[in-house]
Amino acid sequence: MPNSSDAAHALENDDPPALNVLVKACAGGSRWAFETLYRATSARLFGICLHYLANRAEAEEVLQEVYVSVWLKASSFDATLASASTWMASIARHKAIDRRRARRVHEPLDTFSQLTAGDTVVDSVERERQGSAIDRCLETLEEAQRRYIRFAFFEGCSYAELAERHSIALGTMKSWIRRGLQRLGRCLGL
User: Fold this and answer.
1) Residues 16, 84: contact at Cβ < 8 Å?
2) Which CATH architecture has domain 4-103?
3) pTM here?
4) Rounded CA gap, 72 and 147, in Å?
């Protein structure tokens, strides 16, 4: 078992190899490693959950699910594919998106401009301009296309979910959305 003061020092300096070792130790059933890993990474992973859910209570619930997954899937972690930090962040992101899809929350486009910290005023103004252009171009679409694109891209619904929910053939749903995206691209000059 690693020395706890050495592990704490490595984690304070965000040492990816130290996190990798902790995940591998979790795979072996080390509760000490799991506790240390939680202390080192929970703030970041909670931030990811909160970013996608915008609800503290839900973010806390999802964070708990993340660590259950980390514990159960630690043996599948491969440091040659990604660092432990990246692997865990991916789990958190997917769990939060899944939760968000489950509750079907529609977020207005202008909320996205508030999510990025550290931007300059120019960045913020450019993002608002792009958001307005997207809104304007969405209005040029047929009602059904606009609605399905919003569901698919702003609420995170899959094509299969939309097709089932609206009793439309999957191929038809994909075609409608694809044609709508092509029209949006032309409208936006892409």
Assistant:
1) yes
2) Orthogonal Bundle (1.10)
3) 0.51
4) 38
